[in-house]
Amino acid sequence: MLLIKTMYIYETADEIEYELLKANAIKNRQYETQAENLLWLYLKGKQSGYKFRRQHVIKQYIADFINLKYKLIVEIDGKYHFRDEQIIKDEERTRDLEQWGYRVIRFTNEEIFNHREEVIKKIKKTIMAIESYNADQIGGGQLNTQTSSQTNTQSGVQPQQTGASPLSGGLRGAVVNPPSYRNDTVLPLPKEVRCPSWAVDAACSGNPGPMEYQCVDLQTGAQVFHFGPVQGTNNIGEFLAIVHALALMEKQGITDKVIYSDSYNAILWVNKKHCKTTLERNSKTEQLYQVIARAEQWLRTHKVTTPIIKWETKQWGEIPADFGRK
Fold first, then answer.
1. I want to staple 254 with a disulfide (CB 3.0 to 4.6 A). Which of 6, 41, 248, 249 is the partner?
2. What is the mean pLDDT of residues 128-139?
3. Backbone phi and psi for residue 229, each to the nearest 5 degrees, phi listed first
4. What are the CA-CA distances from residue 33 to residues 63, 270, 282 (Å)?
5. Closest by alpha carbon to 52, among 3, 108, 9, 106?
6. CA 75 to CA 63: how far, in whole Å?
7. 266-282 pLDDT, tens per residue?
8. How far apart are CA 117 and CA 122, in angstroms?
9. Quick check: 140 pLDDT over 70?
10. Rg of the chain (C-alpha set)
């Protein structure tokens, strides 16, 4: 008899990195956001009709929520998962997960807070599409080898964008018509703001406290990357966000964009190639200090030619990468 067993956590993880990732997953639960908690209250109960796990290790990544039966991963606010030794972009993680047969859907905090019914419908609709697709494959005697994006096209479920700007309004994927004087962006940017460009920002609950940062493409409104949360300060997050953007632009050969930051201190630290923080170095902050050291080393060994421009909040409003927690 051929036995087909269920896939458990230790079977989806890389055994070499599992203990480290497990520790990070525990920290993520401790620093769970309000949006994550609200969605988990639904997913862990019987009302969803499906079994989900939270902070589940998959090889070198950590998924916010996952249904192993349907290989469906649900992420909130483009949450960023990473190896201990490097920062990994959201889009790279999603591409890897899809290559391994997982389907990834993302929601913003705003969607969880203000459009929860639509979020729940989306999750159920995606599972139903996967069920239908798998049934068709079994009925046709074929193996399910297509990527999740192909499954979405066949089932009528449209793929979501990987990120959204707070300026985009409404559900993710919504586009705000730009002013009549702009044809280089989907966002309502002031005419003084250059485009194409990226905007970065950080948020911290306390000082120090759980810190995270992100980058938004001002041309498309999509999230470029997200990091955290880790124990830190807002200034450190602003500094690392700029360096992360600089390094990613160099890696991708991007030379036609500028970077906007609303932090004068962070821009100054980047120019001086030194993160002048007074954050205590201890077991909780050691991981962050290692990231800071790599960022400073990158600045010392690379010539920065990308313009870093101060975002003028008083004149232009909140920077598009703002987390909207004020």
1. 249
2. 69
3. -85, 150
4. 15, 29, 24
5. 9
6. 7
7. 999 999 999 999 999 99
8. 9
9. no
10. 21
